[in-house]
Amino acid sequence: MDELWKQAVKDITDGAYFRIEKTLGKGDAFDNQIIDWFDRGYFDNEPEALAETVTCASFLGRARIVAHLIDKGVDPVAGMRSGMNGFHYAASCGQLEVVKVMIDRKVPMEIVNRYGGTVLGQALWSAIHEPERTHAEIIEALISGGAEVHPGTTEWWEQQQVPSAETKARVATALRRRLGNRGSGKRSKFRRSSSRCELA
Fold this sequence. Notes:
Serine Threonine Protein Phosphatase 5, Tetratricopeptide repeat; 2 domains; 11 helices; 56% helix
């Protein structure tokens, strides 16, 4: 195996996602190299690196890689070395196209990350603390796609200091639409989550 591959395995398993992206190049160059390695069997003896590759690609917004690996039978939520899987990271980091791939392929949304947050919980937390312009659409998609919404979540959300007024309004509408009258007077089971989109 060549040195580039060995370094890639190390970067992926270490969670050094920006470093491997810089090494391989952005866009099609990154996608083509990862897919080529996979199709040529490089990952056959590196199951942990393969699992973490879905997480890495999700974090970076590489929807083509995520779709390719899932369609080839790779478990999309197995890579949780950092305590968060690819779905958590995609929702957190505003990677809308990856979120759509995950929803379309019915990837489980209720697996909790190291902080006790589901995919929706992570997206809600990030919309407040690490906002991206796509968070409203991501949260709407998750809710429409079947994410569990606990009673009281609407009230909790409306009390938060959300940086984007548009995101706050759109998410509140989506939550009310989903919960109807079931949300009133009940405590939300939402748990604090965290992300590190700026650190990897």
